[in-house]
Amino acid sequence: MTRKILKVNFLLGLLLTATPLFVSSCAVKHEDKKDDKNDTPNNNEPNNTPSDSNNDERGEDNKPNDSNDGERDETRPDNSPDETKPDNSNDNKPDETNEPAKPLDPSININKLEYRDNVTYNPKEHPLYFAEKHLFNLDELFSLSARDIIFKTPKLKTTEHNLKQWFKNGNHGNAVDFTFSSSDEKVDNDFFKFIKEIGEYGNYGDSEKQKTEFYFPKVPLEAMTKPKYLSNFKDDDLVDKKEIQINDINKIIEKNPFGFLPSNLSQLFYYSNFDSLQKQFNLNEQITEIKSNFDDKNGEFELLIYTKNSNKYYFKTDYEKSNNLKRDIDFYQYIYDRSFTLSIRTKTWDADKDSLGRTIGYRLKNLQNSGTFWVLDRVVNDQDEKNWELLVATNIHVFDLSKTFDKSIFDFGRNEKEVLKKWNDNLPGFWENSRDDKSERKNIFIKGTRGIDEKLNVDFKTVYTKKIDPVFDIYNQYLDAPYFYSRHSVSGISGKRNDDPDNFFNSKDSNGLYSTNNAGADFLVLKVKIPKSNLKNILPKLDSVIGTDKEKDFYINYKTEKFSPIKSWFYAGYPVEKQKDETEDISFRGIKSQGGVISTQQRAYNPINLRSLWVKYNDKLNKDSNSLNENYKKYENSFIKNEHGMKLNIWNQHSTLYSNIENNEQGLPGGSSGSMAIDSSFNLIGINYSLSKDEASGKTTNGINLMQSSSENGINLISELIKKLETDNFNTVKLNPKK
Questions:
Q1: 722: Cβ–Cβ under 8 A, 6 or more apart, which residues?
Q2: What are the boundaries of the signal sequence (predicted)?
């Protein structure tokens, strides 16, 4: 069948769907053309430029366009709402299944169900193989992660078994191979039905070749996993109820692997067997059914328990009665207190183009890139009395200065000498105010801001920002600031000829698959010195506790367990969005995702996933990372005196979690790049780097690089950061405290 045309303007990572999709930046870049004397954040006006198009990897007329600019926000989804409200609906009825209506007989051992090769199981004939509800003892659930729980259920094990059988002949009787786009809409939809239950894809296959063939190369927006909840009840069901108290409810909430929200309690009890619940609730009657109502926005939970004696027991609590029970707003506030936005202003030699997109000259332009940052930890440096040395996180592409400082990109064309002479006579760098032409390369400050409110209210939608203030001196830090980024080896990567994989990979193996040492994530940790008097401008909550016993608890927690999208999660940052008067401004906004899907790792190459970073020159790193075509020779000599830098190319191949955004909400657009993502237990899980939109349905999703990889290599980005801190002998308050 004919595929629909897919048009994309891209900044943050390759996001493709089987239907027309726009992908836009979660960072914003524009040329400053007017006086900046007021230094207010609403001066962000994107400078739209045409982009090129090529053939789509599925044989469509157009493939996603690479704007060749890691921060430009040229195209945003139309009709984005001014404000977005967290999803607090209580439509928590579980998906219809044919599993047994009653809990399984305890004598049945679900761990000993046998699976036969070449047999596909179905719920009607094999109901035990699809059981998932009320299976586990509460104490067992407390010892497992949310992902471990669903992967122990017969339903998920059977779904995985059936998927592996389907791979053999699911393409109209032939083996499935997504590598060269041999599938169609029916095959795609069949695949989505499996992934909806599993929540992740990318690890299936018995060899690297098979894993590449079974990897779906587009964003499966129609394959979002959703959490399972108890059925809810109506007020009429409460007639003749008997109210009870659950004395240990706070402990249950604290140990709940699904999180601290009321809805997470419903999830926990969905998987809990009745015997353990009867014991936990101190009931002398056998439980036959339980139902719940919850309100995550207001922090309320109700439970209705039916017993064999035809009694009904009712329990109700809220966040005030049970202090471990949380509301949506608590998670937004947590992110808000630790996040801020920076405006990175560069003087960059950039091309002028005509109406056909042809380069007609170069000018030194004042450009401005906006992104979201958040604090991870503080480096203990008692020798520096004037500054706090902080570890702050964002995306690599947000702090990509290679387009500003890499002179080698102009080493071509008939006007090469003229362009390079202009470059040398007017060196690129940074600026503060567009009227100031500071040739002296010092005392230029990166500026930033945050929301005007100290506390978010329960009905918060967006929070406007204050005027921007100086944060830290940039010239004396920009080369040393990139402290940690993930760079590792991967293999088994497919690549299409029209994507020019030979520009990134050295050679192919016997299966035609590529490998590289330059794989990683769109995640960057900066180590920057911020004057102590400036900290309150971006992180007032930290400013109030820094240097005290409370500081350590302020910094975020993380875990090394693999994440599942069935656990509720949140992310928030500082996008640039249209206001009611059609102007654009920076504001704080967040998304709650109940569900989603994980691509465990990229197995299909596309140059759009490449990230660039400008770092201080290191001879060994240069020759290792830039060995292809002897590119390391470009950077052996400094382009600017006393500022010897080099370019790194990193392919964002790391696990990506896609958010499940419902109720006509829109994902976070440009400016939100770098936004922190946490689960409903206040654990750091990832960082936002992209936005995509299905034009047919209007559905959007953000792409989140996970801290804990879901791939088989199991890399944890924070654990890798800690190893580097230990190697470099940097003690910090939280991650690497002094022994």
A1: 735, 736
A2: 1-23
The 10 Å Cβ neighbour count of residue 383 is: 4
Whether the pLDDT of residue 592 is over 60: the answer is: yes
Length of the chain: 739
Cβ atoms of 730 and 736 closer than 8 Å:
yes
Average pLDDT rounded to a whole number, residues 690-696 = 84
| pLDDT of residue 662 exceeding 90 | no
Using alpha carbons, select from 704, 705, 712, 709 the residue that is nearest to residue 720: 709
Q: For residues 368 and 29, what is the distance between their CA atoms, to the nearest angstrom?
A: 5
Q: In degrees rounded to 5, what are phi and psi of residue 182? A: -85, 0
Distance, in Å, from the CA atom of 283 to the CA atom of 279, rounded to the nearest integer, reads 6
Give the residue among 688, 521, 706, 524 at the shortest CA–CA distance from 598: 706
What is the b/e burial string over 99-119, where b = at least 16 CB atoms within 10 angstroms of the residue's CB?
Answer: bbeebbeeeeebeebeeeeee
String of DSSP letters for 632-687: GGGGSS-SSTT--EEEEEEEE-S-EEEE---TT-----TT-TT-EEEETTSEEEEE
Give the strand pairing for 656-659 and 700-706: antiparallel
> Residue 31: which pLDDT band, with cuts at 50, 70 and 90?
low
Which H or E run contains 551?
helix 551-554
DSSP conformational letter for 113: -
Let me know: does 347 contact 323? Beta carbons within 8 Å: no
pLDDT tens profile 503-556? 788 778 888 898 999 999 999 999 999 999 999 999 999 999 999 999 999 999
The one-letter code for the residue type at 81 is P
Query: What value does the mean pLDDT take over residues 13-18?
Result: 35
- Whole-angstrom distance, CA of residue 232 vs CA of residue 294: 8
Tell me the per-residue pLDDT of 83-108, one tens digit each, with 9 for 90 and over. 333 344 444 333 434 444 456 665 56
Cα distance between residue 656 and residue 686, in whole Å: 9
First CA to last CA across the chain, in angstroms? 64
Three-class secondary structure of residue 331 per DSSP: helix
Residue 738 CA from chain centroid, whole number: 31
Please check the confidence at residue 75 and state whether its pLDDT lies above 50: no
Encoded tokens for 150: 């669903």
63 versus 693: the higher-pLDDT residue is: 693
Place of tokens 């401004």: 585
d(CA 344, CA 472): 11
**The tokens of 690 are what?**
């992209």
Determine whether 661 is exposed, middle or buried from the number of CB atoms within 10 Å of its CB (0-12, 13-18, 19+). Answer: buried
Query: 312-318 and 300-307: which strand pairing?
Result: antiparallel
Alpha-carbon span 389 to 192, nearest angstrom: 46
**For position 51, what pLDDT does the model report?**
34
Residue 682 tokens, joined: 């206040």
- SS3 state at 330: helix
CB atoms within 10 A of CB 600: 22
How does DSSP assign 463-504, residue by residue?
EEB---EEEEE-TTTTTT-EEEE--EEEEEEB--GGG-GGGT
| Percentage, residues of the chain above pLDDT 70 | 83
Two tokens, residue 620:
């060994």
In 159-253, beta strands by DSSP E: 200-201, 241-243
Residues with Cβ within 8 Å of residue 265, at least 6 apart in sequence? 252, 253, 256, 258, 292, 294, 301, 303, 325
List, for residues 570-587, the tens digit of each pLDDT value.
Answer: 999 999 988 777 788 999
Tell me which H or E stretch contains 304. Answer: strand 300-307
Q: Position of tokens 């947000």?
A: 398
pLDDT recorded at residue 26: 64
- Full 3-state SS string of 16-37: CCCCCEEEECCCEEEECCCCCC
The whole-angstrom separation of Cα 217 and Cα 230 is: 34
Q: What is the C-alpha separation between 606 and 16, in angstroms, rounded? A: 11
